[in-house]
Amino acid sequence: MAVSASPINRTFSVAPMLDWTDQHCRYFLRLISNRVLLYTEMVTTGALIFGKGDYLAFNDEEHPVALQLGGSNPSDMARCAVMAQERGYDEVNINVGCPSDRVKNGSFGACLMAQPEVVADCVREMQASVDIPVTVKCRIGIDEMDEYEDFSRFIDTVANAGCDTFIVHARKAWLQGLSPKENREIPPLNYPRVYQLKAERPELNISLNGGVKSLDEVQDHLAHVDGVMVGREAYANPYFLAEVDRRLYDCNGLPISRDEIVLNMQSYIERQSQVGFKPWHVARHMLGLYQGQPGGRIWRRYLSQNGTGRTPDPDLLLNGLAQVQQAREDVASRVS
Predict the structure, then answer these.
(1) Catalytic site residue from 80, 98, 111, 163
(2) Which residues, at least 6 apart from 298, have a Cβ–Cβ distance to it below 8 Å?
(3) What is the pTM for the complete model shown?
(4) Per-residue pLDDT tens digits for 9-25
(5) Where is the binding site for FMN, in residues?
(6) Alpha-carbon span 99 to 168, nearest angstrom
(7) Which CA distances in Å does 208 have to 12, 25, 251, 262?
(8) Dihedral (CA of 268, 270, 271, 272) sign
(9) Which CATH number applies to 258-335?
(10) CATH code of the domain made up of 12-249
(11) Is position 98 annotated as part of the catalytic site?
(12) pLDDT tens digits for 187-204?
């Protein structure tokens, strides 16, 4: 049995976010940081095996990039892991954290924390089929199974099957009574539980996820765990990633500017040839690019008003940038 021994640097990663971290979003985020580990949206085994779309499409520039896979049938999971490796993904990650009803009804996601042997069987078959790392993203507990002993038992069972890398959302999930959105906010964060896991299992690679909003917080957590995964903050305020390479990876050089990113993404839009593609498919991920900057609201409004509808602006990003630059000049003139 091949045991995952990943060369991937997991110090900082961007979380898999359903309907958000598609290939256009990941290309955009990669422009901002060369080093962060990117994850796809969750893709189910059913979609990969029976679906007609290309659910594995990604841009070469996205590396390192991991596929997050949803499923619980070991042979199907292994089959899809092979597909991911053949397409060039750097990692395949098992979703044991999503609490949505459509995930629960498919017998995968957070409900699998109550079935650690199922997850262990998936890990064994996947690792026997591929050479890329097989990792697990989970919660600290579900429903009434929320004591440290329950969490530790899950980790031990899956680790003993060969998985050495866990990304832990430091909240439990309520599978009854809370929506997926509420499960990201209402259950309290319990970072010490993740710290304890790392202290007790130092041989495992443990990343922490949940509620992290600044690089100062990331660095504080890194004193206790191997990596930090950030989700909503990286999406809502993507330029937050611009300092990651310098502060966490000791990379020299100035980060790319927001305006340069816009020009790069306009070129990216012009290269797209998929049937039905619209500039909004890219621009919707960029609404927060100028957050906190002069013209930030104007940027969001321009993209939202001109990127959708029957006749979207083909030069959407360039014209939005012009609006931002004018707002910037207006502020500078008032100051002077």
Answers:
(1) 98
(2) 323, 324, 327
(3) 0.93
(4) 999 999 999 999 999 99
(5) 16-18, 68, 137, 169, 209-211, 231-232
(6) 14
(7) 10, 22, 23, 31
(8) positive
(9) 1.20.120.1460
(10) 3.20.20.70
(11) yes
(12) 899 999 999 999 999 999
